[in-house]
Structure formats: structure tokens, C-alpha cells
């Protein structure tokens, strides 16, 4: 069939050529951009998925930078706290020096002058240490959240950094028993325990002896609990010489049998007792002193001093009073300090022979700004305050170190996740060059062939002219 007005072959060639040209344009666009999806028409679902991947990838990358900033902040705070700790160590060193008896009042005042400067420097560091305008050590940096994820709520919270102000350091939550009497001293072992809050800890079966109690408390394993026994002091008894015939006698001192020579002379009796007691002081822990009217005794480690079992040998009419001593058990006082963890509440109480009135956990201790080592008492108070301050500083540094390690872990995890999501997005969006170059070759050939066939189809109607000749 020969027609002129409608060249179907030409129309068909044009349609195929347009299709090939469109395919060629898409292939060239993909090869030139490197992306398989350049608009929604290329792959609507793939575009939506890849855009969600992009959101997560960019969020993760920013979260990684956030975590790095968190590390920088923690390093800034930890470095400042390290210097505060160095100054606290120096103050404690000066307090220990001031407590020594070799120092005069002017010496201690000179030591206090250095302490005052160190305290001022600690306060300056606390008030001026900041990161990007945020104060870190003045007690205002608390409950801070670091965004470490691509989505809302994916945060790490730093509850607080230690308040390093001089007015805040040195005090602690806890309870203190100072010069606490042990009650009726006894060498008979009995059950003893301590209760902090709702937790009761057995101290074992021990004598009601300040040294034994202090040792048991220190060995209890309770964090923040420390105890020390004060020296046991036994006053001299009124001396009354009743000896009628001089001779030997004996008594027991802390379980050690001691022989005495009794005379009818008071001074000689005291001298004999003094020599006999001090000869075995390494065993009994007791040192005697002649007061001029009797024998006083001291146990420096706070153990009980028990005088008992007086017996006559060859002496006649002699009693323990002939030597200015009296039978009985004398105990010491004890100092107990408990530094509780943050947020602790309740009471500290004891059950057993040693049972002072319970004390509630509360703010106690002397603030750094109030310490004064110009006296021995002030120096001892400063030592306790410095221990509490150093504990707070080192605890906060440990927390900051831990959070730095956590941020490092977060960064590693974020980078791994971002890498994997980027690979997933690449498989959806990026051009497969091997496939597209093959498609380019195919469409170029089809386009060239289509152009040639269109030319042939356009020439076909001219064959009608032969019919008109």
C-alpha cells in the first residue's frame, strides 16, 4: 500500500528515536552526575529511602562532632580539677607540718599565709574555668545533656561536675563522733555492730575497748568510714601507805604479771612501781608517770588499761594504794567519721557495748574557705577537711575520665553506623558505571540506527511518483 499523507514508517521511526533519545539522556545524566537517582522520576521509592538515609547519616556525623566536643569539655574540666587537687595536696601537707610541735605561733601563721593564697587560687580556678562560655566548676554545671544520636532523645546526661568553690569543698554528708566515750570499758568480748541507714554490718565479737572498736570499724570495709582511738589516760590514785613489813607483791596490768617491792616509804613505792611498769611497756602498751602523789598511766594507742589481781608475796599489810594506783579497767574515747556517698540519708548507730546516741547523716566538716592552720586544732581540722575535699575532687575526675571513655566509644559506634548507612545509600543512589556505560553504547547505536531509518522512512513516499509518470 502506497500512501503519501500518512507515513506510518516515519511515525514509528520517530517514536522509537524519541524513546532512545530519552534513554540516552538519562544514561548521560547518570554518568555525568554519578547518581542513579537524580530526581523522583528515576526511582520514587528509592529517593524516599535514600533521603531518610541522608538524614540519619548527617545526624550521625554531627552527633560524632558533638561527642568530640563533649570530650573537649570533659578534658577542660578534668585538667582544672587536677590543678585544684594539687593545691589541696599542698594545703594538706602544710596542715600536717603545722600540727607538729616544733612550730612556733609565728611559724604556723606563715604556713596559714600560704594556705590563704592556695585557697584563693582554688576559688579563682573554680569561678573562671569555662568551656564556650559555660562555667564548669562553680556548681552551676549540672544535669547537662549531650546529643550523641541522630534523633531526639538520644543523649548522654552528665549529672554534675564537682563544685570546686572554696565554700563548698571540705564539707561532706556524713556523721562524726568526736571524743566519744565507749561507756563502761570491758575486756570481755561481745557482739558489736554498726548500722548506716538500713544496712547493718557486724564488727565481730570484740572487747569494749577503743582500740579494738576502731580496728574493727576500719576493717569493716565500709567505704568512707574511719575511726581512731584517743590515748587512754589513767589518773593516779590517792596513795595510802599501809605496809607494816616490806616485801614483795604483784599485780596484773593488761594481763601481764608485774612484781613489786613494797616498802613503808611512799616515794620509794612509787619509784619501784614506775620502774616495774615501764620495764614491760612494750608488752602492755602502757607507760607510767610518777605524779608525786601516785602513778598515772597512759596507753597511747587507746587500748583499755586494766589493773587487777593484786597479791601479796612477803610484804605485810600492803595494798595497791601503797603504790598510788587503783584496781579497775579504764577505757579511752574514740573518734569516728563517716563520709557518705552523695544522696545518702538515714542515721549512723551502734549496737552492743559501744552504743552512743545515733546521729543523722547531715552536712558536716569545715569548708575550705574557713580552715585555719595557725593552731594545732585548726591544722587537725584542716587535714580532715582536705581528705573530704580531695575525695570529692578525685571522684569527680574519675567520673570525667569515665565520660571521656564513653564519648570515645560513642564516636566509634557513630562512625561505624554512619559508614554502613552511607554504603546502603550508595547502593540505592549511586550510578553503576559498568551497567550505564553498556546502556550508553546500546542507546547510542539505537539512536544512530533510528536516525538512519527515519531518513529511509521519509524517502519512502517518493516511490509513489513512479506511479504518476
From TrEMBL:
It comes from the Bacteria. GO terms for cellular component: bacterial-type flagellum; extracellular region. It is found in: Secreted; Bacterial flagellum. It holds the Pfam family Flagellin_C. Residues 384-468 form the Flagellin C-terminal domain. Keywords: Bacterial flagellum, Cell projection, Cilium, Flagellum, Secreted. Residues 4-141 form the Flagellin N-terminal domain. GO terms for molecular function: structural molecule activity. Signal peptide: none annotated. Belongs to the bacterial flagellin family. Flagellin is the subunit protein which polymerizes to form the filaments of bacterial flagella. This is Flagellin. It comes from Aerolutibacter ruishenii.
